[in-house]
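Entry 14. Ran structure prediction on the chain below.
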Amino acid sequence: MAYDDGEAEILRTDLGGLAGLSEQAMFGGLCFFQNGHMIGGVRRASEGGALFRVGKENAPAALALDGVTPMVMGARTMGGFVSISSDGLADDLLRTKLLDMALSFIATLPPK
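Output, structure tokens:
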């Protein structure tokens, strides 16, 4: 397993009652989707932590939170995505704020 299952379980528990929830292994990590739209996920074990799809409009507010950084893959910054470390993922308040932002954002997207 390329990702930390304990970190995946944290998000799995937070998202447990969500209708239309699915999981998919991606980029060495595990991503969570609602009705086909990515919410976020856990990063590969060598990187740790999580990413959240908050949308470009919400990114400045998310980045203003302690411990939140832009999501970078290789040399590319992923617009509308933010990242937190494993310590940030363990912070219930921070994780809840980012999940709320991500769920609010994907609720604005057209059905797939």
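The longest strand covers residues 76-84. Will compare against last week's run tomorrow.
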